Amino acid sequence: METFELILFLLTAVIASSILDKFLPPLSLPLVQIAVGAVVALVVPAVHDVSISSELFLVLFIAPLLFNEARETNPRDLWENKGMKYSQLIDRMVDCARKANEDRNMRNYAYSSDILKGVSLGGTKGAKGSKGSKF
Question: What is the pLDDT of residues 77-89, one digit of tens each?
């Protein structure tokens, strides 16, 4: 029963955010939904102790997202690679992932410097007169 109430509560919050989105045209729907979610999390005390099974999560959240993505997909782009073999598609996917990884690594910079070359790390631990000395 708690799960059913949670589902109804989430559905009500989504409908409320959709209605608020009509009155707040400069804001995008995801921002309105985040704001409604934050208000719900702060106001309703029962929301803090939510546990939901993974199967129910897939049905409630992932399936509608996949449906929406499939509905908004351009059919021409979808059927562009219709005649390709599976191994060719895998090769293209691996090449795409490799290129994305290389692009990400190109943004990392490493600089070699000898700033600490002349620093002596010989410690003064336990030496007489070192208490309270400043470097």
Answer: 777 777 888 888 8
CB distance 21 to 32 below 8 Å: yes
CA distance 36 to 101: 36
- The pLDDT tens digits for 20-78 are 888 877 777 788 888 888 887 787 766 666 777 888 878 877 888 788 788 877 878 77
**Distances in Å between the alpha carbon of 20 and those of 7, 36, 50?**
20, 9, 25
50 vs 27: CA distance, rounded Å = 28
CB 17 within 8 A of CB 33: yes
pTM of the model: 0.41
Q: Residue length, the chain?
A: 135
The string of DSSP letters for 70-89 reads HHHS-HHHHTTTTT--HHHH
Q: Extract the tokens encoding 133.
A: 């000395």
Sign of CA dihedral 7, 13, 16, 18: negative
Using left for φ > 0, alpha for ψ between -120 and 50, and beta otherwise, residue 51 falls in beta
